Amino acid sequence: MDSSRSAQRAVIHFLRTKGEHASQIFRRMKEVYGEQCLARCTIFRWCQRYEVGRVNIKDNVTNIIHKKLGYGKVCAQWVSRHLPGNQKTARMRVCLTQ
Question: 50 lies in which domain range?
Fold first, then answer.
């Protein structure tokens, strides 16, 4: 069984279109997917998105960059949130010399 996030979003979209409530959808998906099931708040969030008219089940580019890659926009450049220790000290040295 495909327990990927996009497959689960497709199930959420289908059940929501049939008129099921988010709590019912969560209960049914928990029975089927078990531990691989999306979190309750995630299912509720996707239900809200589908209620307001969203039809695409894929993540948008902004979510992929922020959540999956861990990057954030700082001064119009994409900068990694988690810097190794040597990069942190190098940045501190540059800041202190200016």
Answer: 5-54
